Amino acid sequence: MSRAPLLGELAVLDDVGPPRRGRAYPAAGITWALLTPAVLLLGGLLAWPVLRTAQASVTTDGRWVGAEHYRAAFSAPGTGAVVGRTLLWALLVPTVVTVLGYLLAAASRRSQEGWLVRFILVVPTALPLVVTGVTFRLLYDPDPQRGLATLLLARLTGRPPEQVPQLLGPDLVTVAVMSAFVWAWVGLAMLVFRAALDAVPTGLVDAVRAFGGTRRDVLWDAQWRPLLLRTVAVVFALVAVGTSRTFDLILVMTPGSVRDEASVLSLRIWQTSGATTTGEGAALGVIWLVAVTAGMLVVALFVRQAWPPPQQPAGTAVGAPPPRRAVRLLAAGAAVAWLLPLGVLAATSLQNPVRAATGSWWSGSPSLDSYEVVLTSAELWRSLGFTIVLATLVTAAVLGVALLAAYPLAWLTGPAAQATGLVLMAAVVVPVQVIAGPLNEVLGLALSSGTARGAALVHIALGVPFAVLVLRNSFADLPAEQVRGARFGGRHWWGTLRRLARHNRTAVVAVAVLEFVQVWNDLVVGLLFSGPDAAPLGLFLAGQTRGFVAGSGTLAAGCVLASILPVLVFVLARRQVVAGLVAGGVR
Amino acid sequence: MQVAVVWAGGELARFREVVADYPTPVQVIGVGNDIDAFLVARQSAGTTPDVAILPRPGLVVEYARRGWLSEVTPADNYTAPAGMADLLTVDRRRYGVWTKAAYKSLFWHFPSMLDEPPRTWAALVALTRQLGARHRAGAGPAPLAIGAADGWVLTDWFENVLADVAGADLYEGLASGQADWRDPPVGYALDRLAELWSVQGAFPGGGRRALLTQFEESIIQVVHHRDAVMVFEADFVDAVVARFRRGSEPPSTFRFPGARVASQPLIVGGDAAVAFAGSTGGVELVRWLSEAAAFRPWLDAGGYLSPNLAVPLSNYRDPLRRQLADELRAAEKVQFDLSDRLPGTFTGTDGVGIWRIMQDFFMDVTDGVTAREAVRRATGQLAEEARTAGGGR
């Protein structure tokens, strides 16, 4: 068998017909048994709540009311603005992230200090969004004694601080939240673009150059057409779906007085429903669900399985010209700009609590008092311990359930494979705020509503679709001889599955890391479903933003402590993560 | 035995000391501010706690109507101030007792920055104008600090003024959903606020800045930076003062001024204990909590006010609380925090309900919108919100 990367797309030359599928199937009888856990979880904790939400949007206490809730939701003041803002988020922010991600990937690719730039940019990606929110709220504080941005604006415009545009004020708060989001996501976009650029066959670039092609020709014929077009689609969709996470940022960054000016659909639904089901909230939820799913499907059809398998990056091109000075400056500038917020957070955490609330982080002498306060509080330790246990158990459960389900799903071919792919993709993007009420009802039946067990179940249900998607694709992408070997080597289906999983280490690692970091960084599931037994970290930190300025020292210290583990894990496993992300389609 | 409470930190620790004296072991779980969502979820799971401490009487009534609660009888000597006692009853049955009170009609200031506190509303406005003019000339601190980023600070302002200008009947009617928010006294109250809030130079950094200032920060502005002379809020301000005060001078307080020296509004808030249906132990515990002796750990810690008038004045260690407890006794009738009694989302949270409406109003009057127009908008929004929230959740 010979495999040749041809224009970036993998062609398996010894196979005929629908490629790369149909080799790893288990016996028919066992199939359903393997699928049962995933089906139960997805059916009970995703599909049923979605249906129940749809039902709640057209009924009141079981009575049919038609479009009344929809009308009520839309006539409520501000709904138009909220929908508009949500759309703006879904279109503008992914565009900015995609463009910046590409530029930085290109700029940092061949220069020597590129790894440093990439490292700096990747760190924000792994931070909990709660921490990102805290960081930018510190940076944008309206008091020039604390907010560096306000101070700089006052200096630059020469106006007194009271008259400087307020970044957290009603006019700019959305821009402020967006900037925090871009900061957090560009690193991921850059990693994906870098993987794509590395996968571009260098021979192609040389060929274009040999025929007298200009830089533009190289970009167009050797990069954009074969690969980048699809990468852009992947990144754009990835970020667009990610924008539904703005919820965490808005909750942490906006004081109550400007929350409406920053509000998006997820927040509005939470405000009108909380953890229960109301008709109006359900109506908004259904609209959002339809929009997100439709957008997702469009992208999915467009991108469909076009990514080259990530296990064989072509390596850095030899002899390619170093990037131009302007490009390198861009990379350096970005590194500094991306480092600044991290510096603000670290410096604030190194002030004692009173000083952090009353003075500037840049003028006080550092002290470890804030850390001392945080580290001696039983709450933080309880929260940390709980989060570690929760994230580990959820990750293990998701991996288990997803491996079992991915194995039989990988042998599907043709329309059946595409249909499962789309269903899983749709399940990936269901925003949890929309189905919170019905989910609580289901959890109530399992006696786990408002408990840590309930929160763990929700995490597992939310994590499974993506994990199945990634693992299924990577099983299906396995070379024929490995599958054959596994089938002969393993006596039972589980032996085969174990062997197959071993060949798929990249995907398994990607799923595990992403799931772990996701649970660790979560705010919304904890907010909606966790019980009083222990608050997960995200909730613990978000709860402290209530008195933001007064508690900024200890809050910053808590944020730093909460970020260490996810950053470490993510930085170490970034290659696998990128590979997993692109193989699994889009999250 | 399980008790779910709204408290966290020091308050939670205090309450654990309280129930440590109870004959049977009690597990206390701090749920935080969103206790409503928690209890709703627990109810649907069929695992409600025995007892809960609720931050709003509106919730007590709501749960009682749904049949979630047991009727309770307080201890014999338990006496809540008039105006608080009947908030926890539905159809003449009592479903809760008050366990902790907050006194929400206080201004805080340093005597060295303000020697003669204003005793009427007119005097407060005059003082604010005078200090405001001085502040704008760059010759002194602003007269007022206000944490307008937290909607509840603004609703507390509004409630004090409303209790002063409107009769008890209207106040009660607004709380219970019977009265119309377009009634003239609501407008008068808002007019008054507009008169004060629109004074140029009233707040450090102006109105725009005040809207991004949270409660704690507004106190820091007075007791640490001395950027402002006075700050209005509840008795629990002193916890923040203790953390951030600079210098040795202790702050003093004066009561929220009314139209006349003799008539000063008195707004209180409080937390109530309820027992869930089917828990006999819960009913017993609630009764025990209503005994005067159960408040002892709070008194020992200082900084807390009991809603139970049976707690002897001499038991209060800190002089401020003793004085406030005395005022609670002397008051003919106290008014309970109005926003805490409103139904559904009207009760307010960040960006929602009456919190949002008062913040819009604050933004209008500090941004040059005429008082008349701002009041018209606010009353319209209030009436609309009352209409939609009336159906309950």
UniProtKB/TrEMBL annotation, chain A:
Matching InterPro entries: MetI-like, MetI-like_sf, UgpAE/MalFG_permease
Q: How does it sit in the membrane?
A: Multi-pass membrane protein
Which cellular compartments is it found in? Cell membrane
**GO cellular-component term (any):** plasma membrane
Q: Where are the transmembrane segments?
A: 30-51, 87-107, 119-140, 172-193, 227-247, 282-303, 329-350, 384-407, 419-439, 451-471, 507-529, 549-573
SUPFAM superfamilies registered for this protein in UniProt: MetI-like
Family classification: Belongs to the binding-protein-dependent transport system permease family.
Concerning CDD domains, the annotation shows: TM_PBP2
Organism of origin is Micromonospora phaseoli
Enumerate the UniProt keywords alphabetically.
Cell membrane, Membrane, Transmembrane, Transmembrane helix, Transport
**Domain ABC transmembrane type-1 spans what residues?**
83-299, 384-573
Q: What is its main location?
A: membrane
Q: Which PROSITE patterns does the protein's record reference?
A: ABC_TM1
Q: What is this protein called?
A: Alpha-glucoside transport system permease protein
Which Pfam family, any one of them, does this sequence belong to? BPD_transp_1
For the biological process aspect of GO, one term held by this record is: transmembrane transport
From TrEMBL, chain B:
Question: What UniProt keywords apply to this chain's record, in alphabetical order?
Answer: Sugar transport, Transport
Q: Give the matching Gene3D superfamilies.
A: Periplasmic binding protein-like II
Q: Which domain of life is it from?
A: Bacteria
State the protein's name: Multiple sugar transport system substrate-binding protein/alpha-glucoside transport system substrate-binding protein
Source organism per UniProt = Micromonospora phaseoli
